[in-house]
């Protein structure tokens, strides 16, 4: 039985339940707690718990946790998958960068609404906490810092997706919210507003929390570092990177060093342990959305956001074959005789797993015919499990899935849920964020041991990849980078490659490309080759100055009577 204390506190009388309103501005938390009775310690604690639940209250058509559609399928990491291009066609629109259609109504409009509902929950808790004293509730300041961390998370995700968003805090009345424009703050100012929430959390949270799932000082420092890294790459109004702010990079170094020097977090010994429920909340998980099963409720608190992505043809799963890794991604795992990536030639031909050497992370990430599936050698992945290989090829995603025998797995009709946590920030990300900052500061020698630490762990992560006869389906060869020839340009290339392989299909890829200012050149080069391999991509094209961000949902512009300004190009 998997129980998590922070969500075990929740009861139906204190939950804030989403409504069917057409707009987040109409959203009012429902339940037994009202403006008249929220100013007590017990009510505040219940609202805090509900706010934690709010950041995980997503769905297949309104993702908040897994960004597999927005960050993986929109990048060079994966295809939509499923039963052809018309199966959940909205996801195909993202893959083709075709979001100006008048019939488009799913996905990101619901994501927008879901995040603002989560912000509403955090603000409701803050209003309650503002109405009581430290004497009445000794944890008041800590809980306020947690709520500002959660609010910062939701605003960060919205900004990463949409760029120009309204910033909503607990001080705004309902009338004020209706007047809050999505372009009140410029790009840099909005980063700073969101950063204020994380800084408050850094200043007021304890380094450790007794209860699993709560934000702490170090998770806030890691998140603030992530924000400053995004902010360091300065953008103009058309989303083009115009420079890199060295002061912001130094902040990244300082904040990540606070996390690293604490000794509180470390890499899991085996990369696999980040992707199975049995080892979640381990030393690498800095902040994660928590889920549960067999927790005393009817169906548990499960995540269904990736529930379409299990093998379609496998009898133990049966739905629905979405999110298939690209041939380009599979090729990126090829290594040379020195165990290093083939930066320039990786995509010249398709990888031959029987005869070429590869980075072992490929078998943690991609389901390949005859290779152990999700660390179960007795049931190797089969090409027969793929739903539409004629369109999307034979590879299958694996990181987000759990075995049908896992205690975290639950099937509800054709759909699949899991109680496996979804990590928002891991320690590997902290190491690579610091490495990136060092490289862009011209201190690439300091980045070398950080990147090599990640590669060393990858090399040691083969224990769960053996077939039943004890052999490996792939030929692994991964080595550390040498100090010789470690120039800034080479280090930058290595860092960006490492981020792709480490987080492949987890969604950061698209947002990294936008942050670095190389999305258009990278993705259009990817599409030029992929159109030959996958004809369904024939009309796909990334348009610079538009496709870096999602359009502001039209229903929000209409609801605010034109107060919100649409993003460029839409």
UniProtKB/TrEMBL annotation:
The keyword Signal applies. Residues 23-229 form the SusD-like N-terminal domain. It comes from the Bacteria. Keywords: Cell outer membrane, Membrane, Signal. It is found in: Cell outer membrane. Coiled coil: none annotated. Residues 283-570 form the RagB/SusD domain. The keyword Aminoacyl-tRNA synthetase does not apply. Pfam families: SusD-like_3, SusD_RagB. One of its GO terms (cellular component) is cell outer membrane. Belongs to the SusD family. This is RagB/SusD domain protein. It comes from Dyadobacter fermentans (strain ATCC 700827 / DSM 18053 / CIP 107007 / KCTC 52180 / NS114).
């Amino acid at each position: 039985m998997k129980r998590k204390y922070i969500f075990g506190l929740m009861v139906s009388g204190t939950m804030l339940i989403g409504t069917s309103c057409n707009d987040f501005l109409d959203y009012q938390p429902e339940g037994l707690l009202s403006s008249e009775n929220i100013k007590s310690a017990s009510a505040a604690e219940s609202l805090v718990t509900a706010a934690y639940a709010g950041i995980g209250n997503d769905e297949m058509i309104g993702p908040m946790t897994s960004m597999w559609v927005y960050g993986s399928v929109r990048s060079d990491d994966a295809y939509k998958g499923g039963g052809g291009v018309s199966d959940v066609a909205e996801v195909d629109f993202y893959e083709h960068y075709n979001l100006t259609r008048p019939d488009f109504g799913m996905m990101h409009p619901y994501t927008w609404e879901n995040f603002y509902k989560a912000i509403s929950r955090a603000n409701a808790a803050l209003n309650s906490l503002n109405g009581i004293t430290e004497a009445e509730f000794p944890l008041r300041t800590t809980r306020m810092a947690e709520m500002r961390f959660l609010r910062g998370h939701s605003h960060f995700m919205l900004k990463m997706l949409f760029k120009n968003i309204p910033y909503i805090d607990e001080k705004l009345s309902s009338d004020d919210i209706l007047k809050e424009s999505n372009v009140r703050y410029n790009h840099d100012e909005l980063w700073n507003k969101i950063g204020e929430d994380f800084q408050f959390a850094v200043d007021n949270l304890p380094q450790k929390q007794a209860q699993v799932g709560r934000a702490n000082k170090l998770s806030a420092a890691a998140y603030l570092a992530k924000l400053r890294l995004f902010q360091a790459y300065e953008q103009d109004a058309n989303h083009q990177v115009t420079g890199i702010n060295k002061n912001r990079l130094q902040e990244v170094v300082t904040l990540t060093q606070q996390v690293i020097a604490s000794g509180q977090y470390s890499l899991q010994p085996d990369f696999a342990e980040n992707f199975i429920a049995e080892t979640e909340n381990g030393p690498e998980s800095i902040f994660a959305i928590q889920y549960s099963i067999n927790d005393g409720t009817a169906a548990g608190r499960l995540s269904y956001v990736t529930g379409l992505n299990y093998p379609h043809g496998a009898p133990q799963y049966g739905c629905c074959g979405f999110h298939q890794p690209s041939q380009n991604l599979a090729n990126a795992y090829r290594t040379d005789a020195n165990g290093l990536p083939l930066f320039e030639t990786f995509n010249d031909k398709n990888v031959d797993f029987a005869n070429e050497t590869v980075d072992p992370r490929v078998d943690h990430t991609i389901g390949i015919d005859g290779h152990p599936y999700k660390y179960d050698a007795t049931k190797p992945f089969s090409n027969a499990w793929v739903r539409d290989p004629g369109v999307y090829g034979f590879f299958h995603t694996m990181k987000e899935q759990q075995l049908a025998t896992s205690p975290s797995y639950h099937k509800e009709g054709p759909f699949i849920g899991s109680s496996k946590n979804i990590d928002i920030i891991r320690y590997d990300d902290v190491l690579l964020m610091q490495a990136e900052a060092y490289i862009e500061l011209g201190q690439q020698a300091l980045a070398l041991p950080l990147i090599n630490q990640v590669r060393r762990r990858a090399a040691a992560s083969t224990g769960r990849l053996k077939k039943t006869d004890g052999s490996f389906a792939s030929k692994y060869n991964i080595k550390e980078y040498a100090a010789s020839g470690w120039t800034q340009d080479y280090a930058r290339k290595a860092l960006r490659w490492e981020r792709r392989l480490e987080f492949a299909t987890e969604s950061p890829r698209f947002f990294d490309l936008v942050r670095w200012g190389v999305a258009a050149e990278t993705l259009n080069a990817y599409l030029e080759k992929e159109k030959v391999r996958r004809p369904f991509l024939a009309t796909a094209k990334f348009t610079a100055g538009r496709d870096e961000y999602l359009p502001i949902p039209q229903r929000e512009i209409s609801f605010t009577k034109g107060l919100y300004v649409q993003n460029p190009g839409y």
